[in-house]
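Operator note (shift B, R.M.): manual run for DNA primase requested after the automated queue skipped it. Running by hand, logging everything below so the morning shift can see what happened. Input copied straight from the record, untouched. If output looks odd, do not overwrite the archive copy; leave it for review.
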Amino acid sequence: MIPQAFIQDLLARVDIVDVVGRYVQLKKGGANFMGLCPFHNEKSPSFTVSPTKQFYHCFGCGAHGSAIGFLMEHSGASYVEAIRDLAQSVGLVVPEERDHLPAGQRAAQQARTLALSEAMTRASEFYKRALRGAQPAIQYLKRRGLTGEVAARFALGYAPDDWQSLESVFGSYRDDAVAGPLIEGGLVIESEKTDTDGRHRRYDRFRDRIMFPIRNTKGQVIGFGGRVLDGGEPKYLNSPETPLFSKGNELYGLFEARHAIRETGYVLVVEGYMDVVALAQLGFANAVATLGTACTPMHVQKLLRQADTVIFSFDGDSAGRRAARRALEAALPHVADNKPIQFLFLPSEHDPDSFVREQGQEAFASEIRNAMPLSRFLLQAVSDGQDLRQPEGRARTQYEAKPLLQAMPASGLRLQIVRGLAELTDTTPADIEALCGLKSDPAQAGRMTRPRPRTSRQAPTALEQRVLQLLMRYPHFVQHVDEATRNGLCDDGQPQSEVLAHLLGECAAIGENVNFAGFSEALAQSPYAETYAAVRTAALADDIEEAPALAEFQGALAKLLAEPLKRELVVLQQQIEDGTADDAARERLRWLIGEITRRRQMA
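Run finished. Output pasted below as returned.
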């Protein structure tokens, strides 16, 4: 876990205008910067970035957040990945509470990672330049129907048919300082064989291949895939696992597809590099591919951060079905009722590229619309080859389904699959749940899909909401809340007082020098994050100066303190009307009327 103090310090050092400006063209407009929202299509700018609050907000679609939230939303980075990206941009090393490495060692690791990243970038530029003069490679790409525009978009290149072509960029491989990052990054191989001087031979991994740079969600080159031009083997050669590149975590084309994924609302997962590039050429720019390995749970998690719907496309042959089964198993821990996962099976003689070229875009779009839901594919997969007319076949189907159902979080979708399996095997949903050990606390349902903790509570009153807005805008106002006032606000037994008590405590703990973005990020990790998100939107739109804000805050507090007195007044008035009030109650009533009048005048 990353300490909150570090996150606060990081957001104080980062300028959100610079962060957002990498991706959005911003223009100064008064105290803020304006631009076209990157999260929905618009013609007139409604996206604003506040340098004073270090926060962004779109008045069109409602997207808002700190620099951390922007990177998460725009690139699909996880919370930790976004923090690490920002930290790297300002030269900070991210500490973790479980990380016991000395600071010097962490810094050395970061320097090593930066050297690898630079080597990958320089190699990619070299391969791109080499493609311009490689006519056989250019002709191959043209035969596959690719234009220069698409090749440039995916930064395609060519590795010359040379054993040491990268020496022209990096220098002699005999120099360990030169060769070290290249070997560690998988660009150069160090052989067991040695030269006459006893040095190990070093040579390029990629030779005479079309080069597909693999980029992470930030657009940095982290690895390569290389395809032969003729019938040689292996057809595709991938970068090995490196400190930068893990096949089980990365997806080819995700960086290039992110805008199309957001526009279409779904991501299409195909099997190869060329499928991704060809589909982008043919009008389906929202395709990505796994990197020569089966789909993993990490892949699914990354995909679901980018889109609400994931569609896996496979060949309809037995190999394609096996790959689909592995994708199904990877997806199950992350299924959610509001995140459909589907499976598309093309005829065995086609891949997506050939299908679109032969049948046309509309035919492929129709296949996508009619893709098989995960629930149906799961039931097909567990019952395939079983004779459901026989008890043994039905029992075997239940046996096959058990680990798959157990891998799913409790949810409405799992319940529907249980019912489908019960019908398929001529039993009851209760029997299936008992057989598979699925009985669980309903409160656990969907827990894995919740990105942040939530607490159910009564909505704040308009007056309380205003106090929350002013406190969120100026956290140091907590200095004007004495202990008696706090007790009066937070101990009146009302459910909506919980969030105010929490915010007062957070304001007291956060200190005076925190900015709006840093404070908002801390509140987003709290049990009341949902309430704070609604309050924050109003606070963003409110540019009230500090002096009038403080006067309004103090007046609102006085009114809030009067609320429990008003409730007591109503009770006593009812007792008097009923004839049940004694002298003490009548005296208390007179005091309440005077106190409420006094507080109203103070407010």
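Quick read of the result: DSSP finds 26 helices and 16 strands in the chain. The first helix runs from residue 4 to 13.
Leaving this for review. - R.M.
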